[in-house]
Amino acid sequence: MRPRALRGIAAAVALFAAATACSGGGDGGADEAGSGSARPTAAGGTFPVRVADCDGKETTVKQAPERIVTSNAAALEMLLQLGVGERVIGTGFPPRKGGLPAPVAEQGAKVPVLGDTLIPKEKLLGSGADLYVDTFGPMPAMGAAGAGPSEEELKAVGIQHVLLLSTACAKSPKAAQGPRTDLSAVEEDIRRLGAVTGTADRAEEIVGAMEKQITDVKNATAGVPEAQRPGYFLFDFDAGTKQPMAVCGRQVANAVITLAGARNVFADCDADFRPVSWEDVVAKNPDWIQLAVRNRGGEEANRKAFDEAEAFLKSFPATQGLKAVQEGRFLRIGSEVTTIAGTRTADTVRQIAATVHPTLVKNGQ
To answer: Do the beta carbons of residue 186 and residue 342 sit within 8 Å?
Structure first.
């Protein structure tokens, strides 16, 4: 089988989204804080609330927003789970069928789509929103369209800008760097959206449930020595097969893999994503390979995509001899729930752990 070429704009966006830097999020009351800490200063439904961007610049949200636009389905899902879905007036990168959990899927499907991928700048600025929840920040890989509105343009039309730090800050020079090994940034994103929308109590419920899952998995795998933890490679099939794209230490997926009791074979790569060679993958010889395909909008279409990814690895000369390929050690877990942080990130940790440590961790318990 010949390697597949890169697949166009949707794949390019998802591939590079988490690798982009953040912009400043000031609203006129901002000041430089020397770190990327984003814990809101208000609790419950108390306002004003201050939140920081990746570089520590603070934004003051004076009252709960009533008209929210989200950049993608992950941000939308967070707001739906927080119980403020009725305030969301539009989204980019809308969820495909099956892309949202059942309790919020019907409501999520009713949210107007402002962009099949990125929301055009003019449409965002003219949306009437008072808050824009931005998962990625600027996206240079998308060219001029990836820049998005400036902070001045957003401010001029009354839109406040809140970033999801867990995804947006991997390349910010002032944000904390190094490998991600926990979900603290994901939890902070949920907490800050809870504070900004006046649903802090619900945010704590979500975070508490996530922390319990993670604690259970960590306790179950605590006796597995580091040297015996299986090597794990996330194969981003939709990024193309001519040159594989490695998930590196700064990406949230590194934390997911680590917490599941496995070793990301490219954890020492000081980035979030980085192109590597198939020779690099062969040298790592992972014990497990995740077939990380993106949601196609239905079970049958997803199954076909997983089948194609597996068939490629089994037929491509460079990967035929890999330990994981020879032993059929594949995980069929979607890319979005692994590489884009959300309310189900802890579920992915448990799903991986239950596969690579089946005698220690049971999925869904």
So the answer is: yes
Q: Which residues of 189-228 are buried (b: 16+ CB within 10 A; e: fewer)?
A: bbbbbbbbbbbbebbbebbeebeebbebbbebbeeeeeee
Rounded Cα distance between 343 and 299, Å, is 21
- Give the tokens for residue 36: 């990327």
| Structure-token match 């019907």, residue found | 106
User: Is beta strand 263-264 parallel, antiparallel or unpaired with respect to 288-291?
Assistant: unpaired
Pairing of strands 231-235, 263-264: parallel
- Amino acid, single-letter form, for residue 93: F
Q: What are phi and psi of 344, to 5 degrees?
A: -105, 10
Amino acid identity for residue 77 in this structure: E
Phi-psi region of 348 (alpha: psi -120 to 50; beta: other; left: phi over 0): alpha
Question: What does the radius of gyration of the chain's CA atoms come to, in whole angstroms?
Answer: 20
Q: What residue type is assigned to position 104 of the chain?
A: V
Does residue 271 sit in helix, strand or coil?
coil
- Residue 335 near residue 292, CB atoms below 8 Å: yes
How far is C-alpha 35 from the geometric centre of its chain's CA atoms?
Answer: 21
pLDDT digits (tens, 9 = 90+) for 86-140: 999 999 999 999 999 999 999 999 999 999 999 999 999 999 999 999 998 877 6
Task: In whole angstroms, give the CA distance from residue 137 to residue 241.
Answer: 27
For the stretch 219-234, pLDDT in tens is 999 999 999 999 999 9
What gap in Å lies between CA 108 and CA 103, rounded to an integer? 10
184-197 and 200-221 helices, crossing angle to 10°: 170
